[in-house]
Structure formats: structure tokens, C-alpha cells
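Retro notes - structure team

What went well: the batch runner handled both jobs without manual restarts.
What didn't: labels got mixed up in the shared folder, which is why I'm recording both outputs here explicitly, each with its sequence directly above its C-alpha cells.

Job 1
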Amino acid sequence: MAEDNMKESLMDAAFVKKQEEEKEKIKEENKAKVGDVISFKKDGKNVDGVVTSAKLENSVVVDMTIMDNFNELNMDYEKTVIGHGKYTIKERGSNHVDTTEDNQP
């Protein structure tokens, strides 16, 4: 009987964990793509950058040199990696390709 309760508790815990993981996933339409301008915090500073690579599963690579004050901020690097959910999209890039069936010739 105790073994059955333990199995049930483990299954419940696994189910709850899976639900939490699903909530944490960022929807594809909310992920930045190459060419998007995003805002985020880096070393306590508000920073903008343009996405240069979106091939990573959980993050994007961002070039911060688009900021007029980049040199004044004394950043260690020109590019950084930012996790999905840690940035906001300020502007969508113009080089997005719509892959929906409606736009196929």
C-alpha cells in the first residue's frame, strides 16, 4: 500500500514538473529573430542590440554596437547572449520570412 502511494506521489510530482516546464517555454512568436532590435539589462544597464543569431534553442546572440552610446558604456564585448524571456522586442527586423502557407506562391 505504501509503495502504491509512493508511485502515485512520484507520478503526480512528474506531472506537475512537466506542467511547470511547459509554462516556462517561450512561444515561438515571442522569440526574437535575426534583425530584431531587442532591449535587455546588462550589468545593471538598459541595453539595446540587434539579433545576429537566433539558432540557439534558449537564447539569441545580440550585437550591442547599434547604440549611440555603446563606447561610453564601457562594455567588455560587442556581442552577448541573452536568454529568451530576458528581453523585450523593440522592433521587428525587416528581413523576416513568413513561412505560413498563406504566403506561398
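Job 2
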Amino acid sequence: MLTGMTELTLTWSDVEAASRVLIATATHRAKRGEPLWTPTGLTPERLSRHYPAQGWRVAWQGGQAVATYVLLDADTLFWPDDLPGVARYLHKLGVHPDAQGQGLSARMLEDAVQQTHRKKCSWLRLDTAANRPKLRALYENAGFRRVDEVEVKGLRVVRYELPIMSG
């Protein structure tokens, strides 16, 4: 358990560490009866097929990878009508089960906002399954606005956006 440790180090491009966090998260959720992702789809090889290595952000505490997300410059699957450069797109936000309850999801979302601001984009956008009230509440409590609910490849998702202030 990593409770009490608040010092975070953030790194880019470590798909292996991101995979470990996501697999642990998915396995933990499945054991609780709340399946989120299929662990076999979270291997470094599978993640590398769908997401660029440079988009992965990993948070470390005490030498252990504890949280991750991937930030994309485009998301034509979930946001097909967006113009290039308008937004960044967050996917695969996960917190290792041993580090949950420390506010790391919120800290990772704050980091994604900062990274989006640095790229001078107006929006941080994401999607989540429509049947995930806890995840939806996390994003809404972080200030994301519900845009709409759409079906993408047979999955009902709610799309969210957060305006990024420039200046």
C-alpha cells in the first residue's frame, strides 16, 4: 500500500509501465464485479498499436508506477468532426489499486489540463461508457461538461469536454 506518499514524478512514453498500471486496474475492477477493460487488450504491444508511445503519461510514487493516461492530438473515432489542433483527447486514465483513494485521478486530470494548455488547445475531451456512473461523476466533478451520448462501434459513450483557458 502506498498511502501517505504524495510526492509524484511524472514521465512520458513509458508504455510498459502504463500497461502494468492498466492491467492491475482492470484485474482489480473485474474481481469487484466492475469490469472496465479486458487485460489482454492492455499489453504494451496492444497499447502501442492504438496509441502513440509519446502520448503516455505515467505517475510514479516511491519508484512504483501508480497512475497513467494517454493524451492524443486527434481522436477521429470518438470525435470525428473535430478540426485539427482544437483539442487534446484523454484515454485510459487508470490508477493502480494499491494507490487508489489518494486523489490520483484528479491529479492526473489536472496534469492533462496543463499539457493541453501547453499545446494551446481550447479543449480537453474524453469519452466514457454511458453505463459508468462513477467514472462520469469523476469527470463531472473535475469540471467536464457532458457534450452528448453517442454510439461508437456498438458502445454507448458519453462525450465530455473541458474548456482550457489560454493566457
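One thing worth noting from job 2: DSSP finds four helices and seven strands in the chain.
We'll revisit the folder naming next retro.
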